[in-house]
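Researcher: Here's the sequence for the chain we discussed earlier.
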Amino acid sequence: MEITSEHLLLLAIPLISAFVGWFTNYLAVKMMFYPIEFIGIKPFLGWQGLIPKKRQEMAEIEVELVLGKLLSVQEIAARLDPQELTTNIQRRLKQVIRKLVDDIMQEAAPTLWAALPIHGKNLVYKRIEWDIPNVVQKTISDFQHNVTEILDIKELVVKQLVDKPELINEIFLKAGSKEFPFIERSGLYFGFLFGLPTMFIWHFYQLWWILPLGGLIVGYATNWIAIKIIFEPKHPIKIGPFTLQGMFLKRQKEVARVYSDIIDEKLLNSKNITDIVLHGSGSKNLLELVELHVNDAIERYVAVAQPYFALGVGSENYYKMKALATRRLFESSESYLSYAFDYANNALCIGDDLCQKMQELTPEEFEGVLRPAYQADEWKLIVTGAFLGMAAGFFQITFVFV
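Model: Thanks. This is the structure I predict for it:
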C-alpha cells in the first residue's frame, strides 16, 4: 500500500493531539505556580500563579489539615530545657546586660549613676549578672506553661507563607516532585491515544467541527485523567499481581519525609518561632511574663541595696526604671536569643515528629497535603486545557487540512 500525503496528514492528527495533551498539561502545571507576582493589568487582564495568588488561603488549609492536627505546641515547647537554653545565651546576655544597665540608669537616675564609683557600678553589674540566669530560666519555664497563649502556629505559618510566596511553591513542588512531571508526560500519552479515534472519524467524516471537538476532548480529558490517577483510588486495590493506588498516596512515607524537612528547616525553625513569639499577637503575654520576673529581680536587688538605693533613685524614677528594664530587655531579646537557635532546632525535633505522624495518617487525611493545590481552582486548569485543545483543532482545520 502506497503511503500518500493524505495518509501523512491523517497521522498528523494523533501526533498533534499528543503535543496538545502535553502542552496543555505542561501549561496547567506552570499556571498553578507561576508567575509568583501578578503580571498584566489588574484586576482581570493578566495572570498570577494560582497557589501564590491564594497563598493565605492555602496556608490556612495546610494548618487546618496537617500542621494544626499533628503538631502539639505544648509538647514541642516542653522539649526545651530552660537551663540548657540559658547556658547557650548567657555569655551574650552578659554583654547586653551591661549596656542595658548603663542606659537604664542614665535615663532613670542619671545623677545617682554618675556619682557611683566604678567599683560600685561593677558590684551592680555582677549582682545582676549573677541573678540573670535565674530570671531567664523562670521566664522560659512560664513560657512553656503558657505557650498556647503566646505562640500561634497558624499565625506563624500564614505569615511566613504570605510573606514568602516562593516558599509555598517549594512545599507543593517538592512534595509533588513525581506527580507534577507525570501530569505533563501523561498529556503526551493520553493525547496520542485520544487522537487515534479522532483520526479514524475524520477519515470517514470530514466535518469542520470534528477536529476542534476532538482537541477540546483531548485538552479536557488529559488534565482530568492525570489528576484522577494521582489521587485515585485512595486505598490500595489488588488486581491479580498488580496493586492500584493513587500515585501521591502510594508515596506517603517518602512525601512525609520531604514535606517535614521543608517545614522544619524553612517554616517552623527557631528563628521564625522566635520572631512570631516576640512580634506576633501573643507577644503582649510574653512581655507580661518578662515584666513579672524582671520586677521580681529588681525587688530582690533593691532589698539588698536599701536604703541607699531607694533614697538615691526616688519612688517615681524607681517605677520608671523597672518599666525601662522590662522594655529594653524584651526589645533586645533577638540579639541574644539567636545564640540558642542551634540548640533549639535540635531539641525541638519538629521535622522528625511531623514526619512520623504524617506517615501514620489515613489516605484521606494525607491527601490534604497536596490536594488543596488542585482543588481550589482545578476547574480553571481543566477548562484552559479544553480551550487550548479546541484552538489546536481549529489550527489543524485552517492550516493543515485546508
